[in-house]
Amino acid sequence: MTIFHVQYLAEPEPEAREFGSSGGACINCWVKASSVTEAQEIAIAAIQESHWRVLSVEEDCLEVTEEL
Fold it and tell me: Which of 29, 45, 52, 58 is most deeply buried (CB count within 10 A of its CB)?
């Protein structure tokens, strides 16, 4: 498997413990996956499980390499 990195802009939903104290965040995700699509699905699912809503992709999902 490969490590991927993607960054999202997100805001807390009412169920999130940060709701009311945070207006939003840039969320960096490093994900071990077989493809970009799988990495994005895993990252978004983890964000949603924490009761945050993804607003946009700030940095596209890329394979982590030594050059990065």
Answer: 52
Asked if 1 and 62 count as a contact pair (C-beta separation under 8 A), the reply is no
Q: What pairs with residue 25 in β-bridges?
A: 10
pLDDT tens track for 8-63: 999 999 998 888 888 899 999 999 999 999 999 999 999 999 999 999 999 999 99
Tokens of 47: 């964000």
Tokens of 11: 């805001």
- Kindly write down the DSSP assignment for every residue of 9-20, as one continuous string: EEEE-TTSTTBT
User: Are 58 and 36 a contacting pair, CB within 8 Å?
Assistant: no
Q: Which helix (H) or strand (E) holds 14?
A: none
pTM of the model: 0.88
